[in-house]
Design a protein that fits this description.
mainly alpha; Fumarate Reductase Iron-sulfur Protein, Chain B, domain 2; 3 domains; about 5% strand; binds iron/sulfur cluster
Length: about 250
């Protein structure tokens, strides 16, 4: 199904059938009140606030298009197939569209309700399921993320990453794009102390959620935040995660 066909199907109730076998759970029950979708008056004012629409330029990757898709999926007039799921997967959940919407559509609530509904009904390809499980098993844990970056650091130390950079233009497009995404050089390992006292008289106390991905992959941001204590007389402390989530 092309993007145009998806949006037409979503809008006019036509049912796509090519991937009908992929829906493993049926359409009902729904994930949102049918009236929640009706609040969208299709004005398109949210388009300019949506990063995925600005990047891809396709209606199905706009807030309005996704609202159509969700409404049609819930109503059972659109098959839950790979194309429809991809358009909803690509939503960043940033809610930029909500601030631009004159109708007050609660887009964030809709997409948050739609996602588990889709997960319960749509069986993703094996490779995708593996990648998603791997990401969930690694990204929320700082220690595991550091461990995952270790081979890259070794490759950088022996000069292999620099060689990849030089050969980048000769790589297949898929790998060229991945090589392009590698930070050069790899950021140093950040060690964030539990507490950083304010310089001078303390005026406020800020807790930093150093979280999972940002600390090992973008330590400069964490350091810059803490560096601002000199200007703001602010004491920073690291927010501890619950013991069960640490690794
Ligand atoms: S701005 Fe609001 S009402 Fe207009 S198309 Fe976007 S979501 Fe719908
Ligand atoms: S949440 Fe963000 S990415 Fe998703 S539709 Fe709204 S503006 Fe676009």
């Amino acid at each position: 199904m092309t993007d145009g066909e998806i949006v037409r199907a979503a809008t006019h109730g036509a049912i796509g059938s090519r991937d009908a076998g992929r829906d493993v759970g049926g359409a009902a029950p729904g994930f949102a009140a049918a009236t929640a979708f009706l609040e969208c008056v299709h004005c398109g004012l949210c388009h300019s606030a949506c990063p995925t629409y600005l990047e891809l330029g396709t209606e199905a990757d706009s807030p309005r298009g996704r609202i159509h898709l969700m409404a049609a999926l819930q109503a059972g007039t659109l098959t839950l197939d790979a194309a429809a799921v991809r358009h909803l997967d690509l939503c960043l959940g940033c809610r930029g569209c909500e601030t631009a919407c004159p109708s007050g559509v609660q887009y964030g609530s809709l997409i948050e309700a739609a996602r588990p509904w889709i997960e319960a009904r749509y069986r993703r390809p094996l490779a995708t399921r593996f990648r998603r499980r791997l990401a969930l098993a690694v990204l929320p844990y700082r220690a595991r993320l550091r461990l995952a970056l270790a081979p890259l650091r070794l490759l950088e130390r022996v000069g292999a990453l620099a060689a990849v950079g030089r050969l980048q233009s000769r790589l297949p497009a898929r790998w060229r794009y991945r090589a392009h995404l590698l930070p050069k050089p790899l950021p140093p390992v950040a060690v964030v102390p539990i507490a950083t006292p304010a310089r001078g008289a303390e005026r406020m106390h800020v807790q930093l959620l150093v979280g999972c991905v940002i600390s090992p992959s973008m330590p400069a941001i964490v350091r810059r935040r803490r560096g601002s204590r000199a200007r703001t007389s602010t004491r920073f402390s690291r927010r501890r995660r619950r013991r069960s989530r640490s690794s």
